Amino acid sequence: MEIIALTTQAFTKDYTPYIKSFTNLTHILAYLNGKLVSYVAIITRWIQMSNGPLLRTAYVEGLATDLAFRGNGFATQVMRRFITEAQDYDFGALATGSHGFYERLGWRLWEGPLYTRKDNELIAMPEEQGCVMVYTLPKTPPLDIAAPLSIEWRELEPW
Ligand SMILES: CC(C)(COP(=O)(O)OP(=O)(O)OC[C@H]1O[C@@H](n2cnc3c(N)ncnc32)[C@H](O)[C@@H]1OP(=O)(O)O)[C@@H](O)C(=O)NCCC(=O)NCCS
Asked: How many other β-carbons are positioned within 10 Å of the β-carbon of residue 38?
C-alpha cells in the first residue's frame, strides 16, 4: 500500500494497474525514520538490439520520491542501488521524460528507432523516440546507439 500511495502521488495517476501488471518485480525502497520516502522497481524484460540475441534487461519502473522529501538525494541513492542489483543482467533500460536526472547517473539516450515485438511482429513506436535511455552493465555487448531497439510487448505502455 505504501508503494501505491507514493507512486500515485508522484505520477499523479492511480499507479495500481501498473504495479499489478508488472511481473518479475524487485522493489527497492528507501526509508527515513520508518517512512517510505523513495522507491524504484526492477522489472526483468527482454530487449533486442538489431538482430542480436535477446538481452535480459533490468528495466526501471516507478522511480518516485515523496514530494516532501525531494532534492535530498533519495532517488539518486535508489538508482545507485538499482545498478548494484542489476550487475548480473545483460542491459539496463527505461523510458522517461526526465533525461537530465538519469544522464547524471550515466544513462544514455537511445538514438535508434524503437519497436515493440508482438506475435512475431515488429511494431514501430516513433512516439517513444527521445524517451528511452540505456545503461551499460558488465555483460552488455558493444552498443550501436543508433541501431534499432525492440522490447517485448505488454499491455500498459510497451516501453
Ligand atoms: C525524479 C524524482 C524521482 C527525483 O527524486 P529526488 O529524490 O528529489 O532526487 P534526488 O534528490 O536524488 O536528485 C535530485 C537531483 O536531480 C536533479 N533532477 C531532478 N529531476 C531532474 C531532471 N528532470 N533533469 C535534470 N536534473 C534533475 C535535481 O536538480 C537534483 O540535482 P542536485 O542533486 O544537483 O541538486 C522526483 O522528482 C519524483 O518523484 N518525480 C515524479 C516522478 C517522476 O518523474 N519519476 C521519474 C520518471 S521516470
From this structure: 25
- Coil vs helix vs strand at 34: coil
Please name every residue paired with 36 in a beta bridge, in sequence order, or none if there are none: 31
CATH of 2-152, one of 3.40.630.30, 3.60.15.10, 3.90.1300.10, 3.60.130.10: 3.40.630.30
CA of 75 to the centre of ligand 1 (A): 7
For 19-57, the pLDDT digits (tens) are: 999 988 999 999 999 999 999 999 999 999 999 999 999
Rounded Cα gap, residues 80 and 154, in angstroms: 27
What predicted TM-score, i.e. pTM, was given to this entire model?
0.94
- How many whole angstroms from 99 Cα to the centroid of ligand 1? 10
Query: Any idea where the domains of the chain sit in the sequence?
Result: 2-152
157 lines ligand 1 (CB under 6 A): no
Decide if 12 contacts 145 (C-beta within 8 A).
Answer: no
**What is the end-to-end Cα distance of the chain in Å, rounded?**
25
C-alpha cell recorded at residue 10: 508522484
Is 72 a pocket residue for ligand 1 (Cβ < 6 Å)? yes
